[in-house]
């Protein structure tokens, strides 16, 4: 409020490379992924300030849903996992916390299509692509509700 009262201008964003994706944090993605993605988009694009879109947000990309700690590379996540175990959490409990909060969730390769590595690279990417890449990718979503909503905004 103080910023806008003094003609300030905010940077508006939901996602960046240091946090899990907003869709996973705020939306029931099993039932409302598309509706949630458009709601999040509208909330920043219709507010005062400059909206920023993080890669994949415009197609409704979600966290990768990795199966094991071996899939994570972020040193903060690996250290947090060890600390959680030392605090008495079971391996499963610690893994579920990392799965929900890891920075790697937003650092996965862009999901371009259904080909190997989601069309991101013919080489080995720094992180595995997300499990959803066969369904949620640019090729599938380019004419879809979320992407066209972003275009309309």
From TrEMBL:
Lineage per the UniProt record: Bacteria, Bacillati, Bacillota, Bacilli, Lactobacillales
Protein name: Alpha-amylase
InterPro entries: GH, GH13_cat_dom
Entry-linked Pfam families: Alpha-amylase (PF00128)
Superkingdom of source: Bacteria
UniProt source species: Streptococcus pneumoniae
GO biological process: oligosaccharide catabolic process
Domain Glycosyl hydrolase family 13 catalytic: 4-151
Range of residues in the leader sequence: none
């Amino acid at each position: 409020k103080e910023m806008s009262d003094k003609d300030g201008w905010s940077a508006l964003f939901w996602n960046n490379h240091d946090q899990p994706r907003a869709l996973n944090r705020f939306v029931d993605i099993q039932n409302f992924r598309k509706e949630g993605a458009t709601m999040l988009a509208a909330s920043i694009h219709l507010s005062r300030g400059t909206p920023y879109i993080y890669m994949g947000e415009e197609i409704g990309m979600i966290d990768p849903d990795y199966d094991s700690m071996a899939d994570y590379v972020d040193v903060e996540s690996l250290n947090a996992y060890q600390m959680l175990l030392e605090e008495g959490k079971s391996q499963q409990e610690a893994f579920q916390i990392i799965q929900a909060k890891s920075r790697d969730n937003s650092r996965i390769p862009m999901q371009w299509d259904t080909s190997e590595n989601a069309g991101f690279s013919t080489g080995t990417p720094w992180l595995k692509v997300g499990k959803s890449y066969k369904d949620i990718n640019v090729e599938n979503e380019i004419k879809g509700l979320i992407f066209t909503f972003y275009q309309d905004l």
